[in-house]
Amino acid sequence: MIPVLELHDLCVTLRQHRRAIELVKGVSFSVHAGECLGVLGESGSGKSMSIKAAMGLLNKSFLVSGSARFQGEELLGKSAEELRRLRGGKVGIVLQNPMTCFDPLYRIGQQISETFLAHNSWSADEIRNRSLALLEKMQIRNPEEVLEKYPHQLSGGMLQRIMIGIATSMEPALLVADEPTTAIDAITQFEILDELIRIKRDANTAMIFISHDLDAISRVADRIVVLNQGQVVDQGDFDHILHHASDPYTKLLVEKRADVMRRYCQVLQGKERNYA
Amino acid sequence: MRERFFHNRTAVVTVLFVLIIAMIGILAPVLAPHDPYETDILNKFAEYSLEYPLGTDHLGRCVLSRLIYGIRPTLGLALLTMLGTIGLGALLGIMAGYFRGVVEEVIMRVVDVMLSFPSQIMVFAVVGLLGISVQNVIIANVFIKWAWYARMIRTGVMQYRDRNFVQFSRCVGMPERFILFRHLLPSITSDLAVLASLDVGWAIINISTLSFLGLGVQAPTPEWGAMLNEAKEVLTSNPIQMIAPGVAIVLLVCCFNLMGDALRDVLDPKEVEK
Amino acid sequence: MKRYVIRRLLLAIPLLLAISFVCFVFINIIPSNPAEVALRVQQMPVITEEAIAEMEVMLGLNKPFIVRYFDWVLGCLHGDFGINYVNPARTVAGELARCLPATLQLAAVSFVIVLVLSVPIGFLCAVYKDGWFDKIMRAIIFISTAMPAYWVGLLLMWGISVKLDLLPTNGSGTWQHLILPSFTVALSYISTYIRLIRNNMLENMNQDYVLYANVRGLPQKSIMVKHILKNSMHTCIVAMGMSIPQMIAGTIVVENVFSWPGLGTLCISSIFNRDLPVIQTYVLLIGVLFVVFNLVFDVLQTVSDPRLRKED
Fold first, then answer.
1. I want to staple B154 with a disulfide (CB 3.0 to 4.6 A). Which of A55, B97, B133, C40 is the partner?
2. Chain C contacts of B121, Cβ < 8 Å?
3. What is the pTM of this model?
4. ipTM of predicted complex
């Protein structure tokens, strides 16, 4: 079976003032339909950079080499227009910081419909119906009112859900979630993760979940790739990462996590003892 | 710091250029081929030649000599203006930033009012009310510009006031005056140098504009703006006459603007890395 | 929204008072007695003590300072700005009214030129950042900020009017007279606004919403125009609006180069004639214009920004 997205030896170099800084140094991984790949790594490890490079979201000062295949087709070297048609259509992407991702000057409805218009030639009625359906599917109350709202009038969790709704509305083959839970509070995080799990189950979409949060990744991902300083240092399922990690960096990451968990349990127990 | 300065080619070249211009101005009597006031009606509107490298004007005076002598009022008055502006601005800014309270309130409200006036008009207003003279031109330019410096310096002082090293000095029991001069002034100097070099260009244009309109340096004195005023009168018969002073102003102002940008790079390493 | 406008209006009042006070103080702190100046300007052969005293009464100079200030402000509110020193038969208000239309005409045309040129050029510079167009424009901007407006005026006059004989050198009357002066006024502002729009657009390009627009696969043209340009113009509204009074004030030099019969020419000739009330009123007028335009465009920006606009 052809993987939905396959990166092979992908390199990204930033050229600046006659200096070249290699940010991603030969990353390879792939994701199949119905599978969720978790990409783990701290900020600056090149997680989002590799996806952005594959999708043509980097500007001209970045040099991309290697190979990135989407459903067997090479993405690098495709024209900007071809990549544009892919993004938002076949590939849905969810970003972090939902509060700043929407243009503050346009209503939510306008921003949803311009996305639809960029990929389809639907009538105004159809766009409206589909927008409402999108919001309903994301369990947003009063969808008609929300369409008329400006981004600043909605909460971060609500915007994040709208973002997921837009990303999934065009039945993508691949859904990329780039740290979708980092900028929102814990309860909303939980709901957003549930939403993503539901999408994966219902639609048989391939999903890439990028995060530095081991906890969040462990809930949604079937397989995990660990990135450090632009290189893949470890991959396997969650159990493998947790117990048999070979790379020192991965071990460190897991240990830190375990420490936090242990402390958390201690505190909980201590509390229970106090109550008793 | 010194190393960074010598590494920055623009900074070195522009500073050298300004120094050379200033030297030429100081050494004008030695370098100028002719007396800038010596008229020779018979030889008016002479072409460029070895004798008169930039030709002669409508009174037969050597344009090059007038240009060289013109450095003195043009550059000198601009520098004098900046000196006055920075002096007044620094005094009031430091007072507002350091002593706070009523002093600050009063100074800053005056600054607000000053900044809400269009500066170009204020120059004319001050010159108009005080009368036409070189000294009033400088007063006018200082008057409209000091508020910018006062505000900037106050912000600087406020920022540095609460920095650890200043608070440390205070804890150690250094006298206030010592803290002010030992720590605050050097910290603000870099911002000041950048802004000031950019504003020298502005002052040159402003002063030459006033002279051009006949409100500043008066006719026979060789000043670039005044020279352009004379050139305007003979625009149709000898258009060449307005080229030299104009180009001189543009070059000098460009140089100061470049210098300001280069100094910013030299003095603020953060900006370069971005 | 309403409350914001009212608050803004109330805040403008002390500023207006302060400006008028400065204007008033100006004329009163000058070293010479205004009455004496007035007499001198009218070329009275022998200035006697009685004549000065008589003039003081006529100009109301014998009253206390504060009373005079309020008299003056009240007069200004009624459109009475005093009398012309040079020609007491003429009022200052009349003089200004005579010259204002020409200046407004010049400033309006300049403003249109600035808008028409700086928005597209700034936009293109940002879109093709570091490309040849951007580099050439940046060089031109750099040099034009160092060119004194009067010299540009002279060069244009010489090149276009004298050499090519396309347009009249000076004076006013037809639209052809307007072209050179308005272009000269515009030139010094165009560079400022190109830079403003370019930098603002570049700043906006790094915003998350642009990345997200790309993520959604919107066409580049729509991102640039509908999103980035709109957002940048939005932050530039106040600066753009403030350029109108700046241009009205900025015509002063250019008017003199091209002998345009507007406020600038009036102001300069008043300076030469020591006609203090005219200068005073001119400064007051420009100061008030600044406050008013600032107010109007601040409110406009608030109204057009959904984040600041409170839906009533």
1. B97
2. 249, 252, 282-283, 286-287
3. 0.81
4. 0.84
Chains touching A (3+ CB pairs < 8 Å): C
Whether residue B128 is contained in a domain is answered as: yes
What is the pLDDT averaged over residues C226-254? 85
Q: Is residue B203 part of a domain?
A: yes
pLDDT tens by residue, B118-170: 777 888 888 887 778 888 888 888 888 888 888 888 887 777 766 666 677 76
Alpha-carbon distance B120 to nearest alpha carbon in chain C (angstroms): 7
Nearest to B129 among C158, C268, C276 (CB): C276
Which residues constitute the domain of residue B198?
1-31+70-274
Q: What is the CATH number of the domain that holds B123?
A: 1.10.3720.10
Nearest to A12 by CA among A27, A24, A20, A28: A24
Q: What are phi and psi of B2, to 5 degrees?
A: -65, -40
Give me the residues of chain A with pLDDT under 50, please.
none
Whether the CB of C143 is below 8 Å from some CB of chain B: the reply is: yes
**How many domains does chain B divide into?**
1
Does some domain include residue B60? no
Cα of first residue to Cα of last residue in chain C, in angstroms, is 7
- Establish if B105 belongs to a structural domain: yes
Which residues 143-182 of A have a C-beta within 8 angstroms of C?
A: 150, 152, 163, 166
| pLDDT tens per residue across span C166-218 | 777 666 667 777 888 888 888 888 888 898 899 899 888 888 888 888 888 88
Please name the residue of chain A whose CA is at the shortest distance from the CA of residue C212: A101
> Which residues of chain B neighbour C30 with C-beta distances below 8 Å?
129-130
Where would I find the H helices in B117-242?
A: 119-130, 134-161, 164-172, 176-179, 185-212, 224-233
